[in-house]
Hints:
Elements: H1 7-17, E1 21-25, H2 26-39, E2 45-50, H3 57-65, E3 69-72, H4 75-83, E4 91-94, H5 100-109, E5 112-115, H6 118-128, E6 134-139, E7 161-162, H7 166-176, E8 180-184, H8 194-207, E9 216-218, H9 236-254, E10 259-262, H10 266-269, E11 273-285, E12 288-293, H11 302-305, E13 312-314, E14 322-328, E15 336-344, E16 351-355, E17 375-380, E18 383-388, H12 393-397
Parallel strand pairs: 1-17, 2-3, 2-10, 3-4, 4-5, 5-6, 6-7, 6-8, 8-9, 9-10, 12-14
Antiparallel strand pairs: 1-11, 11-12, 11-16, 13-16, 14-15, 17-18
Helix pairs in contact: 2-9, 6-7, 8-9
Amino acid sequence: MVSPLSHQLLLHIANEYGTPVYVYHAEKISEQFAKLQQAFSQTPTRFFYASKALTNINILKHIRSLGCHVDCSSINEVKLALHAGFEKENVLYTSNGIAFSEIEEAVSLGVNVNIDSLSNLEKFGNKYGHNYPVGIRLRPNIMAGGNLKISTGHEKSKFGIPIEQLDQILALVKATNLHIAGLHVHTGSEIRDVEVFMKVADIFYDLVPHFPEVRFLDLGGGFKVPYKEGEAGTDVPLLGQKVTEVMQKLSATYHRQFEAWFEPGKFIVSECGYFITEVNVLKQSGNTVFAGVNSGFNHLIRPMFYEAYHRIENISNLDAPKHPYTIVGNICETDTFATDRPLSEIREGDRLVFYNAGAYGFEMGSNYNSRYKPAQVLVIKGQAHLIGKRDVFEDLLRNQVIVL
């Protein structure tokens, strides 16, 4: 098991590169992918890293070096993946609500394509017919995920073609001679219950007879990772066992081989990430002690957007007695990271580390309040490497056109 980065190394990085700073641990990424490979070793399975979690080109290159493929939510993510060296056949493009021209561009690049609307499916069939295999993203009407904002398979979700429109899908397939190579269902993120994935497998069991050319069954991603102390994540070995049983049953029933596809993002990179901030000011109001750090939801929006929990530690004063603190940012909106959180005594200038910050941290960042995006550092075999420079003032002016 890979050991977490030491407090000493994190403090050294904070001193060398300044704060706030995102730090990623390459060996932890490798370990997470190895867990997936081991759990699914008994059935043909392909893993596509959901690059929306973290698209730094160095992270993409490291993930490619492990033998993992890549999942993209936009045509620009596709281009980043190809730029990072992924072979086109190992790139999966699944978007929603997009112009058909973006799908055409994905086809021109030769990558795997999933389509999530009847409208675009019809356009695809009319243009490509049987000449370009395609996957269909379906909405199964399953409520799953750790927060409504990351639940994507319920009956009011915008994602996927509603499964009750199967007759319309089949009519389109027949009318345009579509080659349906895969079926895709993604129900949400932060799914701990293995049975949710089994519900998806049951849906596939009913759908496969309608699509004689299907070769892959994509169960999406959304594996839960532990954020709190003592919290359990998705039982990946159990999931691997259950999926193996389903795939074997499907193959025996329909006399053809299927591949299971998954799109893990958070599972691969969340636990590799550390976000280091510095305490600017302490302020007391009644019984509440605010610790104001040099960051905000412009750098880490998950606690405000999803009410997500991130473990926080004062690595500058680890052995001091603990007191409750409310950790807040420096943005002119409510940007509370944690409320009444017991932490080692905090002093102005101390460094606080937010754990599990690898997924949807920097990636969802912004320049709100005209503040700079932080630097990014990748630790490989104990050595820190700068992989993303901190913004400077000129970055705030970049792309602006002066007319006055």
